[in-house]
Amino acid sequence: MAYSEKVIEHYENPRNVGALDKDDPEVGTGLVGAPACGDVMRLQIKVKDGIIEDAKFKTFGCGSAIASSSLATEWLKGKTVDEAETIKNSMIAEELNLPPVKIHCSVLAEDAIKSAISDFRTKQTARRALAGEPEAKADGEAAGARGE
Amino acid sequence: MQFPIYMDNHATTPVDPRVLEAMLPYFSGKFGNAASRSHAYGWTAEEAVSKARETIAKLIGASNPKEIVFTSGATESDNLALKGVAEFYKEKGNHIITTVVEHKAILDTCKRLEKQGYEVTYLNVDKDGLVDPDDVAKAITDRTLLVSVMLANNEVGSVQPIAEIGKITRARGVLLHSDAVQGIGKVPFDVEKMNVDLASVTAHKIYGPKGVGCLYVRRSKPRVRLTAQMDGGGHEFGMRSGTLNVPGIVGFAKAAEILIQEGEAESHKLFGLRERLRLRLMKELDELRVNGSMKSRLPGNLNVSFSFVEGEALMMAIKDVAVSSGSACTSASLEPSYVLHAMGVGDDLAHSSIRFGIGRFNTEEEIDYVADLVIGKVKKLREMSPLYEMFKEGIDLSSVQWAAH
Q1: Over pLDDT 70: what percentage of chain B?
Q2: Which of B65, B159, B177, B322 has the most crowded CB, counting CB atoms within 10 A?
Q3: Could you tell me if residue A9 is inside a domain?
Q4: Is B347–A1 a contact, with Cβ atoms under 8 angstroms apart?
């Protein structure tokens, strides 16, 4: 299969490979896919004051899956959590020129982003409940504070 | 070294320069039609074809050169064997026995025959990809016409017990066909000693040209009959019409002659190279699994699952080497190999498998280069693999609730 130049570039120089401490309350972890299907993505975000200040990934999968997750981490950094949620698989597929048989790689990357955000929000809710804080939308406030 | 290094010799082989040299005169000066009986051009072509028949018969242990029916290759030979026998003997029975690890040329032909009312039994294989001859014996009924079992598997290199199966089919009065494409000249194969009644062979897997092959059809004890699948001039003893590909047949025979003379020594060399690669990989990398039998295996085949690394990603990383993957992302479908599946290899490991097919023109230098490259890239991809990290942390990956997609 012929890969697009962008896929090859990400595959050969993947951005943000690695792991963040999954027990850190500011870290959200998404683990999606299945070994039997040939691809598993783990995507992690570290959120400070509502802004994603770091993102890391590890992927078991083909070149397109690795490139999709690498690109996702690149896009996530510096975004608010709400902004991150608007990333769609079609944007990833378009940016990387994925052929039809590889669209599922971009779908998986979107799932990984959603899953990491959901994990982060669950942790925040649990932390607030423990601290007896009201159900404030921490990341929503921070998004406002960015003043954009 | 020439890049990419070719290590996919189960798919096809380059034409040996000696084969090419033998073929060249038959394209121009000796261009005659082997069916032309009225002039020297025809006689020259016919003589070359009969000599070729003798050489190819010798390679497979056939006693009569007229038992060699030239075709366009193994796919046609497989089709002719199965459809031809099924059609000719349809009054006698309607049952065919084969295995789940056969080439698609056999499996898809069987599927078509099933649609036409024939019954097909697909025998399972063990974890090494081998068929149990007892299973063949048990599957035979009084309606069985033919058993078709490949000599060696194209993916995992497992060499089937054809001689044992031949004893059973001969005793029970059932015909035995073998798709011998991958094993010819590499492992022992003799249609007389093994009681094989029909055998498919192709030239391009033995350093001959593409587009030519043959079907061995036994002429005595028993005499095998089949219905031609191509109508026309009645060439090839009425079994396969069509003007003979004389240059191709000459090349096929030259390739066979080289194997008769050098095949045994070459198999030793291929085995040495294969083991050199296997041992280097096993020494430097953990969690490897070799797929297929280590006892009964093609000398040049190494099919390995590199756990926690996806096969297509690895092929992309080692693009200096031409190999193929059991992970189907390479083909249009996304299903992993049906052969590995039949052997009980999990989908996760099937997605992680690479097939190295070592051949005549590979060198020790190339093996060492490939070993170093693969070791380095597998380590790099494992650093990037969440599965390898989890495995190293002691997490049982089979206990994780994965979201299948």
Answers
A1: 97
A2: B177
A3: yes
A4: no
